[in-house]
Write a structure and sequence with these properties.
One of its GO terms (molecular function) is oxidoreductase activity. By secondary structure, the chain is of the alpha/beta class. The protein has helices at 7-25, 42-53, 94-102, 139-145, 169-175, 182-186, 200-206, 209-217, 230-239, 288-291, 298-304, 369-386, 413-417, 420-426, 444-462, and strands spanning 29-38, 58-61, 73-75, 82-84, 90-91, 107-109, 117-121, 220-223, 243-244, 248-254, 262-268, 271-282, 311-318, 326-330, 344-350, 357-363, 397-403, 433-435. The chain folds into two domains: 7-69 and 229-308 and 412-462, FAD/NAD(P)-binding domain (3-Layer(bba) Sandwich), CATH 3.50.50.60; 73-222 and 311-403, Polyamine Oxidase, Chain A, domain 2 (Alpha-Beta Complex), CATH 3.90.660. The chain is built from 15 helices and 18 strands. Strands 1, 2, 9, 10, 11, 12 and 18 form a seven-stranded mixed sheet that branches. It is globular and about 65 Å long.
Length: 464
């Protein structure tokens, strides 16, 4: 990854576009709020509800047709059964329980989604991986994790950064005698890219105490009716006209002083809207593509452009054609520790609807829905030919799909050495903008907690 050398040019071009787009937005309806929130995922929805509860007016701009971000729920058309195919559960803590209660969602006993007898198969040729199982991380892993408490709920690194954290994970395991944890750490399904290339820093940040408490101790809560999207539907009903769905920021201006505020031109299904706000909360993934309309200056471009990656997709498949008393997980037949091939399907997991599975797909580059579903279909047809009892005539159907790209963008060891994460934290409040997305923590519950801690500063800035 290379730092940009075009910061001032990009800023100049963006400013020119901003003037042009803002000019085209003149005459549009003006929406005046204390705080504008970009992105209606976990962090954005949490911020909107809690800011309103604290007396602040808000407007949420969400590019999709619903709130929820990485939370995706498909309802079986015959039975109405909800099937979550993105976020599967939440960490049990007071912030999560309070948010459930605030939105009138009944928390049920937590458990991981139904997993039937697992079959581990190389999805490139259909061969089974025999005598294979996935252990929990050992006490040695816990001891290593606890050496770096600043990675648990963010990436607030010391200066200098410990060099061992900038080793790749295979290098770290070898140096610190953790190779017995290779299978446990390489088997986390919701990690984009190639874990053998991940820095140790990211492994500890992702496979943190919160996630381990979920996996090992069962500290989990879910919606009692099984529909994790209800939380966001209830939030949408309450926020009502304070949410602009299927909408994107065309261009924006952000002042340097609190009194300068924020002005955004937003394209909505009902035409362009002007948003005039005191502060901006950016809850969408903080990557350059998403932030380009906001007239970034050179400092912002040079920081944000360091982050990339996170190509990940999920969906639902019916008419599966494989025996439904199994779950199917991709593992390499001839790779070290049986690491799965990328790009490709991560796994097919059964649901409460017989014959309906959800799948997750991992890639090194951005892909269209057609590309993901074509490759997923080819994988299923391969498995139909190699798994005993399969129906080779079954033709898979794909009623639901979602791109989760970019999922947890990352940066290089050199950028981290130079202090890129200190620079990220220094952006909080800069040009009246605050960042609450998943750049620093992976899970919804952690996003809620981190957003909650940031709200007093956002509110104070809005009152200057």
């Amino acid at each position: 990854m290379k730092p940009t050398k075009l910061g001032s040019s990009v800023s100049f071009i963006a400013s020119a576009l901003a003037i042009d787009d803002l000019a085209r937005c003149r005459g549009a309806e003006v929406i005046t709020r204390d705080i504008a929130i970009i992105g209606g995922g976990a962090a954005g929805t949490y911020a909107a509800i809690n800011l309103k509860d604290r007396g602040k007016s808000v407007i949420v701009v969400e590019r999709r047709g619903s709130l929820g971000g990485h939370t995706s729920t498909y309802h079986d058309p015959t039975t109405g059964t909800p099937i979550n195919y993105g976020v599967q559960l939440h960490h049990e803590d007071s912030t999560t329980r309070d948010f459930y209660a605030r939105l009138n969602v009944t928390a049920g006993p937590g458990s991981f989604p139904e997993v039937k007898t697992p079959l581990y198969i190389d999805f490139t040729d259909g061969s089974p991986i025999l005598n294979y199982s996935i252990p929990q991380p050992s006490e040695n892993y816990f001891q290593a994790l606890h050496k770096y408490p600043y990675l648990e709920n963010g990436i607030e690194l010391p200066d200098p950064v410990p060099e061992e954290l900038l080793l790749t994970w295979p290098e770290y395991m070898e140096r610190f005698n953790l190779t017995n944890d290779a299978i446990a750490t390489y088997s986390r399904p919701a990690t984009p890219g190639d874990l053998t290339k991940y820095l140790a820093l990211y492994v500890f940040n992702y496979l943190n105490t919160v996630l381990l408490e979920e996996q090992v101790e069962g500290k989990i809560i879910v919606n009692a009716n099984g529909d994790l999207s209800e939380l966001y539907r209830n939030a949408l009903a309450e926020l009502d006209s304070d949410v602009l769905l299927n909408s994107v920021v065309v261009s924006g201006q952000r002042g340097r002083k609190p009194t300068d505020g924020v002005k955004l031109c937003v394209s909505t299904p009902k035409g362009k809207k002007w948003i005039v706000a005191k502060q901006l909360v950016f809850s969408a993934p903080a990557v350059l593509k998403n932030l380009e309309p906001f007239s970034l200056d050179e400092r912002e471009v040079n920081i944000i452009s360091e982050f990339e990656g996170g190509f990940y997709y999920t969906g639902i498949v019916t008419d599966f054609g494989l025996p439904t008393n199994y779950s199917y997980t991709n593992r390499g037949q001839n790779t070290e520790y049986h690491i799965a091939s990328v790009p490709g399907v991560v796994m097919f997991n059964p649901t409460n609807v017989e014959g309906t599975y959800y799948y997750w797909y991992n890639s090194f580059s951005d892909m269209t829905r057609e590309q993901v579903e074509t490759d997923t279909r080819n994988t299923i047809k391969l498995l139909q030919r190699t798994v005993t009892g399969a129906d080779v005539s079954a033709e898979p159907k794909f009623p639901a799909f979602k791109s989760h790209t970019p999922l947890h963008p990352i940066t290089s060891a050199d950028a981290i050495r130079r202090g890129i994460y200190r620079e990220v934290y220094s952006l909080q409040g800069y040009r009246n903008t605050w960042y609450t997305g998943s750049l620093l923590v992976p899970g919804s519950s952690q996003l809620w907690n981190n957003t909650n801690q940031l709200l007093p500063r956002i509110i104070a800035a809005s009152e200057q």
